[in-house]
Automatic annotation (TrEMBL):
Organism from which the protein derives: Friedmanniomyces simplex
Superkingdom of the organism of origin: Eukaryota
UniProt: Zn(2+) binding residues: 129, 135, 173, 176
Gene3D superfamilies: SIR2/SIRT2 'Small Domain, TPP-binding domain
TM ranges: none
UniProt protein name: Deacetylase sirtuin-type domain-containing protein
SUPFAM superfamilies: DHS-like NAD/FAD-binding domain
A single MF term (Gene Ontology): protein-succinyllysine desuccinylase activity
The organism's taxonomic lineage, starting at the top: Eukaryota, Fungi, Dikarya, Ascomycota, Pezizomycotina
Length: 281
C-alpha cells in the first residue's frame, strides 16, 4: 500500500549497496513458464529426468531437446518493463548487483550491464564441454542442428517412452573431440559457477548490504535462496515482490521487511522510480 511504498522509497533513496535475487516470476509476464506455480515446468515435465547430470547421462538427446525447446521459447518472447527497470537501476547505482536464477537471457536482452548481473544458474545461450575441468571449452549461441534432433521425440509429451537418438547424433566438443557438449545451465545437485560464487562473495565482503529485493522467486532452491539470509546478516532489509502472498523467503519474516503482491513487470518499475525516474507506462 501507499505507506509501504513510501517507506520503501525512503530506504531505497538512502541505499547504495542493493542486491536483487531474481526468479522465474520476473519473466512470467514476458510469457515464459515458471517452475512451481500453475503451468510451471516442473508441473508438466519431470525435473529429475531433465535437469540433473544423471538425466544427461541417461538420455542426452532428451535433455538436449528440453533445453533447445526452452531456448526456442525464450527467443519468442521479449524482456518486460521489470527487466528494463533493473537494468536502469544497475546503470544508476554502481553498488547494485542482480543475482539471477533465470537462464532465459531476458535481462541480458534488456541491456542489463553484465558486470552487475550474476547468472547463478548459467544460461540457455551457452553450451560447454562435459569435461569442465580439463577441456573447459564453451561457446555461446550454439544451435542444436535439426538433423541432430530425433524425429520421433515430441518434447511436449516427455513422459512417452523415448526412442532417443544415439549419442553420436549429439554435438561433440570441437576442442577435445571426446566429450559431448552440454547446455551451459546449472542442474540440480551441481555447484554454481565458480566465477559467479566469487563475484557474489566479493560483493558481500566489500561492505554491508542495505537491501535485497526478492523478485518472482519461490526462494526454495539453494544455494541461491541462501543469499537472502547472507544479505540479512549484512544488515539488509528484505523487499519481496511476488504474485503469491504465501511465497515468503525461507528464514521467516522480519519487522521492517516489505512485501509487494502482484506482477513484477508492473511493480518493479514503480518501486525503482525514485532512482530510475518515471518509466513510460
Ligand atoms: N510476478 C511476480 N511473481 C510471480 C509472477 C509474476 N508475474 N508469476 C509467478 N510469480 C512467483 C510465484 O508465486 C513463485 O513464487 O514467482 C515464483 C516462481 O517460483 P518458481 O517457479 O519456483 O521459480 P524460481 O523460484 O525461479 O525457481 C528457482 O529452481 O528449478 C530451479 O533452476 C531452476 O532457477 C530455477 C530455480
Ligand atoms: Zn571438450
Amino acid at each position: 500500500d501507499a505507506e509501504d511504498l513510501a517507506s520503501f522509497h525512503e530506504h531505497l533513496n538512502k541505499s547504495t549497496r542493493v542486491l536483487a535475487l531474481l526468479g522465474a516470476g520476473l519473466s512470467a509476464s514476458s510469457g515464459l513458464p515458471t517452475f512451481r506455480g500453475a503451468g510451471g515446468l516442473w508441473r508438466t515435465h519431470d525435473s529429475v529426468s531433465l535437469a540433473t547430470p544423471e538425466a544427461f547421462n541417461t538420455d542426452s538427446s532428451l535433455v538436449w531437446q528440453f533445453y533447445s525447446y526452452r531456448r526456442h521459447m525464450a527467443l519468442q518472447v521479449q524482456p518486460n518493463p521489470a527487466h528494463y527497470a533493473l537494468a536502469k537501476l544497475a546503470r544508476k547505482m554502481p553498488g547494485f548487483q542482480a543475482l539471477s536464477q533465470n537462464v532465459d537471457g531476458l535481462s541480458q536482452r534488456a541491456d542489463h550491464p553484465p558486470g552487475q548481473l550474476q547468472l547463478l544458474h548459467g544460461t540457455l545461450f551457452e553450451v560447454r564441454c562435459m569435461d569442465r575441468g580439463r577441456c573447459g571449452h564453451s561457446e555461446t549461441n550454439f544451435v542444436l542442428q535439426a538433423k541432430q534432433q530425433s524425429k520421433d521425440l515430441d518434447i511436449s509429451d516427455v513422459k512417452v517412452p523415448l526412442a532417443s537418438v544415439k549419442t553420436h547424433d549429439l554435438p561433440v566438443c570441437p576442442k577435445c573431440k571426446q566429450y559431448l557438449l552440454r547446455p551451459g545451465v546449472v542442474w540440480f545437485g551441481e555447484s554454481l559457477p565458480e566465477q559467479v560464487l566469487d563475484n557474489v562473495d566479493k560483493f558481500m565482503d566489500a561492505g554491508g548490504v542495505d537491501m535485497i529485493m526478492v523478485i518472482g522467486t519461490s526462494a526454495k532452491v539453494y544455494p541461491a535462496a541462501g543469499y537472502i539470509e547472507d544479505a540479512r546478516a549484512k544488515g539488509a532489509r528484505v523487499c519481496v515482490v511476488n504474485m503469491d502472498e504465501n511465497d515468503r523467503p525461507a528464514g521467516g519474516w522480519k519487522k521492517g521487511d516489505w512485501f509487494f503482491k502482484g506482477d513484477a513487470a508492473t511493480l518493479v518499475p514503480r518501486l525503482l522510480e525514485p532512482v530510475i525516474g518515471r518509466v513510460e507506462p
